Amino acid sequence: MSLIDQFHAGGFFMYFILLFGLLTAGFIVERGIVLYKKYKDAPQDFRRNLLAFISAGDFKGAKNYIETTAADTSVGKVAMTGIKIRMSGAGDEALQARMDEQLTREISFYDKRTGFLAMFGNVATLFGLLGTVTGLISSFAGVASASPVERANLLSQGISEALNSTAFGLLAAIPALVAFAIYQNRTEQIVSKMTEASSELYHDILFYTDDHKEDSVGSVIPSATKVAEVNTSRN
């Protein structure tokens, strides 16, 4: 019996299993592209180089540095938000709120559809189970009213429908659940990296621009205490 014949032998619920199998395949490809191809880490020395601009009060230089080295990274986008907020003269609460909003958007981009894979796997399994139950019900119902000659044939057809439904349900569910576990782990790693890096950048901007004031060209002049601390750390 070919695969197509087995599919048709599985009964009505096989079409629902096929639908969720196709959805699973699409989501696996889409999530794989987002999590492994579109995600990019900021350069390894990104924070150190950015901190050099911030500590000197050169926010325009910091903005240009982000645009040239990390504009397409999530950490770079969060840092750019913080730089722009500080350049506009906003306070600490606005800085934290805007950077948190940008971080939330970045996290949502990587996390928003991964959970569907677990749901697809569970639903495909349930449709397989449903097909199994209905196949057995129809099998035994037919046997009860059939002649002795027809009973063996009806029983074998019902059991075939039940087992094929179970098999295809598991065939659709297993890749979905495996992909969900892999992608969920990858998502957690990405979120952890972004959250840690964004927190460090927020505290850097907050620390080196505390009690700041803007000069005539839009740069931020750190307090004398902060400049002294930076110079001491460099020495």
Structure description:
The chain has a two-stranded antiparallel ribbon with strand order 1-2. The chain folds into two domains: 3-38 and 121-189; 46-111 and 202-234, no CATH class. Helix 2 packs parallel to helix 8. By secondary structure, it is mainly α. It has nine helices and two strands. It has helices spanning 3-9, 14-38, 46-55, 59-69, 74-87, 92-111, 115-145, 148-208, 224-234; strands spanning 213-214, 220-221. The model is unreliable at 211-235 (pLDDT under 50). Helices cover 81% and strands 2% of the residues. The longest helix has 61 residues, at 148-208. The radius of gyration is 29 Å and the shape is rod-shaped. Strand 1 (213-214) and strand 2 (220-221) form a beta hairpin. The N and C termini lie far apart (79 Å).
Short recap of the structure:
The chain is mostly helical and 235 residues long. It contains nine helices and two strands; from the N terminus they run ααααααααββα.
Tally of individual domains: 2
Radius of gyration: 29 Å
Average pLDDT, rounded to a whole number, is 83
Order of helices and strands: HHHHHHHHEEH
Biggest sheet character: 2 strands, antiparallel
- DSSP helix fraction: over 70%
Distance between the termini: 79 Å
Strand content: under 5%
Number of helical runs?
9
Strand order of the largest sheet: 1-2
Instruction: Please count the beta strands (DSSP E, at least 2 residues each).
Output: 2
Shape: rod-shaped
Structural class: mainly alpha
Instruction: Flag low-confidence runs.
Output: 211-235
